[in-house]
Amino acid sequence: QVPYQPSSPRQVANTLALLRGRAGKTVDLGSGDGRLVLEAYKQGLRPALGYELNPWLLCLARFRAWRAGYHGKISFLKKDLWKVNLSDCHNVIVFLAPSVKPPLATKLLAELPDDARVVAGRYPFPSWSPSSTLGQGLDQVWAYDIKEVRR
To answer: For a surface tag, which of 41, 54, 67, 148 has the fewest beta carbons within 10 Å of its beta carbon?
Structure first.
C-alpha cells in the first residue's frame, strides 16, 4: 500500500508538460483522485485511464470525471498495477513511493513498447537516467523514454 498524497497543481502541470505532443494510451498507476488522468484527457492524451485500489479514491475520481463532463470518456479501474498488462501503454504516470520503483522498473521494461514514456513524480527511478526533468523540490518530475532506458 502506498499512502495517498494528492498531486499539487505544479506537479500536474510539470507532468503534462513532459507529455506534451505525445499520443497514445495514457495511464496513471495509483491514480488517486484522478486529477492527473483528467488533465491528460483535457490535453488530448487519449485514451486516458487510472488504476487505483482505494475504493474511496476511485469514487472521488469517477465523480470528478462526471462533474467535468467526461463520464464514459475516462476510465478509473480498481485493478492491481502488478496484474495489469501495460504493453499497449505509450504514456505512463507514476507518483509512487521509492520502495515500489525498483520492482516497477522491471515490470515497465518488460511490458512497455519502445516508444513509451514514463513520467515519475516525487521520486525518480533510481537506476534509470531521465530523458528530461522539470521543476524543483517536491514539484520535480522526471521523464524516461523506454527506448533510451533499455540502451
So the answer is: 67
